[in-house]
Design goal:
Helices cover 63% and strands 0% of the residues. It has 126 residues and is mainly alpha-helical.
Length: 126
């Protein structure tokens, strides 16, 4: 917000010199009043978005802490700091693969039922 030249108060208090054949002061004042309303609306929206951004950063940090507690590696926080150790991708994917294999085995048992029960080789089951 350091690039903003005028506040709504600055616009309201600005005095213009009158010259011959100049603009109608009432039109200028009306236009400046509309600009002040826009500034106030933009400031409210900016504050609302800043608050929401901060709330979401806190939520991301909290979720990353929950992931870390549950045994996974922490993700980078919303503040832009990276974790101090590298996150291995293999353990996460192998757990996912194991889950997929278990689900597939369960599905095969449901679909093929007695055909699989007659087979004494249980090497395909998890």
């Amino acid at each position: 917000m350091e690039n903003i030249n005028y506040t709504p108060k600055d616009i309201l208090q600005k005095e213009f010199k009158q010259k011959m054949r100049g603009y109608d002061p009432n039109d200028v004042d009306g236009f400046l009043d509309d600009i002040i309303k826009d500034y106030e609306t933009f400031n409210k929206e900016l504050q609302s978005l800043s608050d929401e951004n901060e709330r979401l950063k806190v939520q991301v940090d909290e979720l990353n802490k929950q992931i870390a507690v549950s045994g996974s590696q922490p993700m980078p926080s919303a503040g832009g700091t990276a974790p101090t150790r590298s996150v291995p991708s293999q353990p996460m994917s192998s757990a996912t693969n194991m889950d997929i294999l278990k689900r597939l085995s369960h599905l095969e048992r449901r679909v093929f039922g007695s055909q699989l029960d007659n087979n004494t080789n249980d090497s395909h089951r998890l």
